[in-house]
Design brief:
Radius of gyration: 31 Å
Number of strands: 29
Strand content: 15-25%
Keywords: Aminoacyl-tRNA synthetase, ATP-binding, Cytoplasm, Ligase, Nucleotide-binding, Protein biosynthesis
GO molecular function, one term: glutamine-tRNA ligase activity
Structural class: alpha/beta
Strand order of the largest sheet: 12-27-28-29-25-26-13
Family: Belongs to the class-I aminoacyl-tRNA synthetase family.
EC number: 6.1.1.18
Catalytic activity: tRNA(Gln) + L-glutamine + ATP = L-glutaminyl-tRNA(Gln) + AMP + diphosphate
């Protein structure tokens, strides 16, 4: 990477410094290391874009490594979802790796630690270990089992592996120091007993390595040069390096852990544990609910991979945590969809409009442009008839001065069609308008070149021909949480801030060109927002999700 091309973030500066110190360019290797215990969320998206983006910038391979060391919470479903998300974001990994690929080597290294008197089997309960570990201001005390003989430790560890003991009866701990300032260094656990079926290794193992032991050693085995983690792993770096010191061969690349800050998104949560809670307790319909901060949920909502990559690039990498307003993501979504989404006409709050002087039974097909942002303009045909739907808010019986849409006695243009003039209304017994009657200027057809077609009117409104309209289910989403930082106050259950109005299901009426729309196709419903086809949509019952409005109109709900 040339430093002249752009200013470097601190992660890139670290890499550049290592290259200057003699690390060969062809030894650069990065990794994205998710745990397959849930679906990836927007925070993971930033990490994916960072690591794979570095791979692209430095022409270096990037591994996708699943840290699958806790079989009680991991499933193949999550592995498949993670791979799908990374590919959808536009990235391709060099090697697909698993911590479970290295279980035998990790075990063998643990045996070597025991032989060097650097690890021992502890038979205390977890409660006893927590007490003897001390506090950040007081030193710990040695386990009564810390000085077991090497022979006894080797025997117990082998028997743990063979499944002779129940969960919780023994653990293997590194023998470092019970007086370390960093509490993670106070004889951390390396292995625990778990009689659980692993989604890849089956029932081969009864003991599983802890994350801290498996992570750095896996980096080393894969010859990852730079291991980038979020800031909460900063205290773990000392342990990461201590473990590497026990096995490092100077002829190989030594991985370097460095940390960057999480970028939290407002009005959502990004804890997999809390996202799982939302799913299992039925607050959402699943991991891919369009209100979720998961990549799957965002994809289903209609947010594009390009928008997410642009969002990650915009917020950048920092050393301090920050709460990013979700409106910035919305902006990136609008910016991308504006370029790629065809414009179509749909009415979501319909009122009937009758053109009284239009011939009974007549219909015509008018030309409409698909997207003015296209380099080469394309067009489609939309049907026009005597009876139309328009948006209820596009009409006022008695309009104020700044209302530039349809009212009695005023003219507006129907998009791609004719100029009409409001003449009268029909109301029901409660005084609600059920029909608007108007007349049209037959010579004012858009694009006809006539003098009447060039006449300027103050407003243009969209419409759908009633005889041709397709009925569809429209799902309109709002923020899932009313508070910008629902996870910010640890004394308040984050679920207290769930927005009871985060989903509204309405019936909309669409132009017939949308009949053949396929899952995840994006459209701009003119003057209403961006929408995409939901996975539950069928030709018999179309379902559209609102991705984002044309502008940010969301009003924050006050929280007591």
């Amino acid at each position: 990477m040339s430093t002249e091309e752009k200013s470097l973030n601190f992660i890139e500066q670290i890499i550049e410094e290592d290259l200057k110190k003699g690390l060969p360019q062809d030894k650069l290797r990065f990794r994205f290391p998710p745990e397959p215990n849930g679906y990836l969320h927007v925070g993971h998206a930033s990490a994916i874009c960072l690591n794979f983006g570095l791979g692209i910038d430095y022409n270096a391979p990037v591994n996708l490594r699943f840290d699958d060391t806790n079989p009680s919470k991991e499933e193949q479903e999550f592995v498949d979802a993670i791979k799908r998300d990374v590919e959808w974001l536009g990235y391709q990994w060099d090697k697909e790796c698993y911590a479970s690929d290295y279980f035998q080597q990790l075990y063998d290294w643990a045996v070597e630690l025991i032989k060097k008197d650097k690890a021992y089997v502890d038979s205390q309960t977890s409660e006893e270990m927590a007490i003897q570990k001390g506090t950040p201001t007081t030193p710990g005390t040695d386990s009564p089992y810390r000085n077991r003989s090497i022979e006894e430790n080797l025997d117990l560890f082998e028997r743990m592996k063979q499944g002779e003991f129940e969960k919780g009866t023994h653990v293997l701990r590194a023998k470092i120091s019970m007086n370390a300032n960093n509490m993670l260094m106070r004889d951390p656990i390396i292995y625990r007993i778990m009689h659980a079926h692993h989604h890849r290794t089956g029932n081969d193992w009864c003991i599983y390595p802890m994350y801290d032991w498996a992570h750095g050693e896996s980096d080393y085995l894969e010859q990852v040069s730079h291991s980038f983690c979020t800031l909460e792993f900063l205290p773990h770096r000392e342990l990461y390096d201590w473990f590497l010191n026990q096995i490092y061969d100077e002829s190989k690349v030594r991985p370097k852990q460095r940390e960057f800050a999480r970028r939290n998104l407002s009005h959502t949560v990004v804890s997999k544990r809390k996202l799982l809670q939302l799913v299992t307790e039925g607050h959402v319909t699943g991991w891919d609910d369009p209100r979720m901060s998961t990549i799957s949920g965002m994809r289903r909502r209609g947010i594009t991979a390009t928008a997410i990559r642009n969002f990650a690039k915009t917020i950048g990498i920092a050393k301090r945590e920050n709460l990013i307003d979700v409106s910035l993501l919305d902006f990136c979504v609008r910016e991308d969809l504006n370029k790629v989404a065809p414009r179509v006409m749909a009415v979501l709050d319909p009122v009937k409009l009758v053109i009284t002087n239009y011939p009974e039974g007549q219909e015509e097909w008018l030309e409409a442009e698909n997207n003015p942002e296209e380099e080469v303009m394309t067009y489609r045909k939309v049907p026009f008839s005597k009876e139309l739907y328009i948006e209820r808010e596009d009409f006022q019986e008695e309009a104020h001065k700044k209302f530039f849409r349809l009212s009695l006695g005023t003219e507006v243009r129907l998009k791609n069609a004719f100029i009409i003039k409001g003449e009268s209304v029909v109301k029901d017994a409660d005084g609600n308008i059920t029909e608007i009657h108007c007349t049209y200027d037959v010579d004012s057809k858009s694009g006809s070149g006539s003098e009447a077609s060039k006449r300027k009117v103050k407003g243009t409104i969209h419409w759908v021909s009633i005889p041709h309209a397709i009925e569809a289910e429209i799902r309109v989403f709002d923020r899932l949480f009313t508070h910008e930082n629902p996870d910010g106050n640890k004394e308040v259950d984050f679920k207290e801030y769930i927005n009871p109005n985060s989903l509204e299901v309405i019936t909309g009426y669409l132009e017939p060109s949308l009949q053949s729309a396929k899952e995840l196709e994006h459209f701009q419903f003119q003057r209403l927002g961006y929408f995409c086809v939901d996975k539950e949509s069928t030709p018999e019952k179309l379902v559209f999700n609102k991705t984002v409005g044309l502008r940010d109109t969301w009003a924050k709900v006050s929280v007591q």
